[in-house]
Design goal:
mainly alpha; 2 domains
């Protein structure tokens, strides 16, 4: 008897890895927005002190006389976010090996636009903050929040061509790579070479494991955690360990995917030849065949692809929302909001994320197309690129992360930075969406 289940088609729908990626980013964007609202609510009610106290609560890991003690806020930003950066590393690796960044002709436009969208905002910020204590925050407006930016674009549906979504994804991936490099090179206070060398040894060990054909995740996880610990002690921000670890994960299948069909057909013939047990149950031989089918399918899937798929959900619904809850809660005095927005740090971030991103992304893209260095994404227009450039001004997650690193010892500047990030991201997101929804003309 066939059971009617209206949701079954959704489960049976085949989604490409790119479609799954977009779905995960859209989910992240929605949850991130909700958690940001919760954080702002808690920070502007009588619950503020409890909110702050909770995230400053210490959690200790003790083994004998050895102790690792950090606040919940610190564990989220240094440990859980390392998993987020690990996922970013996997995404970068996929894009470069088989994704949009693997074909230079296709990749050149988002690469150049992303570089413009990082350099121009940093220069604008420095122009406003040069010679002040806030100058060190130049890396804050360089970042684009991939989840929010893609969510805004996906909501527009068929009003924007698929190639434009792909352009934004590739741009955001390059932007993430740039942010990782900036954090590693410029937001490290002091280097402890012994710990850094030990972290390097752990990375080399993971590379050796890859070369030896080790494909189980557990060994990489264990060595990766040890590498994270050494990176934490080295002075380089511990989250960089996540990106580095991602580079060592095998990204080649054990068996050629083109050989999958023949082997599966033989197994399925044997499976169907077995007599039915009744009540839709399988006999022992069928169970053994099913195990072989699973192994054969698993053999054509790369560990890197499987990890990326498996991590999207926990990162989307746990790690990023926790980061937003711990970092987006700022107590707002609306009476002094105008004064805060005009502070050099806030003003530099707003100008960088809004004006800088538009000039950097749209300006460089326009120049590259005019000089025949690159071509427009299929079925898109320069007007739509202009709207996407505004969406690139949604900094949020990575911008807040860099702000915490840049102004670690100055709560007042962190506050000004977060106000600037929230204001700029809201403005850029709304303007970008409205431009693409009502102004930008589609290609004929």
């Amino acid at each position: 008897m066939k059971i009617y289940a209206p949701w079954q088609k959704q489960f049976e729908k085949i989604a490409t890895p790119f479609e799954a990626f977009l779905h995960a980013q859209t989910t992240t964007g929605v949850i991130l927005l909700c958690m940001t609202i919760v954080a702002l609510f808690l920070a502007n009610t009588p619950l503020f002190e409890n909110y702050v106290h909770f995230f400053h609560t210490k959690i200790d890991i003790v083994v004998g006389e050895w102790r690792l003690s950090h606040s919940i806020h610190h564990w989220i930003n240094d440990a859980l976010m390392a998993i987020f950066f690990f996922l970013i590393g996997l995404e970068i690796k996929r894009e470069i090996s088989v994704g949009e960044l693997s074909d230079l002709k296709v990749a050149i436009l988002p690469i150049l636009a992303a570089l413009g969208g990082m350099v121009i905002p940093a220069l604008i910020y420095m122009g406003i903050n040069a010679g002040t204590e806030g100058a060190v925050g130049w890396g804050i407006p360089m970042a684009t929040d991939i989840a929010f930016a893609i969510s805004a674009l996906v909501i527009l549906g068929k009003r924007v061509p698929t190639a434009l979504v792909t352009f934004l994804v590739a741009l955001a991936i390059v932007d993430d790579l740039g942010a990782v490099v900036v954090i590693a090179l410029f937001y490290t206070q002091k280097i402890y070479l012994t710990s850094l060398a030990l972290a390097g040894v752990m990375f080399l060990l993971m590379i050796v494991m890859n070369r030896l054909g080790i494909r189980k995740v557990l060994p990489y996880f264990i060595v990766g955690v040890v590498m994270w610990f050494f990176m934490l002690q080295s002075g380089v921000h511990a989250t960089i360990a996540g990106v580095i670890a991602a580079l060592s994960i095998p990204s080649m299948p054990r068996r050629d995917p083109h050989d999958l069909r023949a082997g599966l057909e033989d197994l399925l013939v044997k499976f169907d030849a077995e007599p039915s047990v009744g009540n839709h149950a399988m006999n022992e031989t069928q169970k053994a065949i099913l195990t072989q089918i699973k192994k054969r399918i698993s053999s054509v899937e790369t560990p890197a692809a499987k990890l990326e798929h498996d991590l999207h959900l926990p990162v989307s619904i746990i790690i990023i929302p926790l980061f937003a809850l711990a970092n987006a809660g700022i107590s707002i005095d609306f009476g002094s909001m105008g004064e805060t927005l005009l502070q050099p740090v806030s003003l530099g971030i707003i100008a960088g994320l809004v004006l800088g991103k538009v000039l950097g992304i749209f300006g460089v893209a326009w120049l590259a197309i005019r000089l025949n260095i690159a071509t427009l994404p299929k079925q898109s227009t320069m007007s739509q690129i202009f709207g996407v450039a505004f969406l690139g001004g949604i900094g949020f997650t990575m911008s807040i992360f860099v702000a915490d690193l840049a102004f670690a010892s100055n709560p007042e500047l962190i506050f000004q930075a977060k106000v600037g990030i929230l204001a700029a991201s809201l403005f850029a997101g709304v303007v970008g969406y409205l431009w693409l929804r009502f102004v930008a003309k589609a290609s004929n």
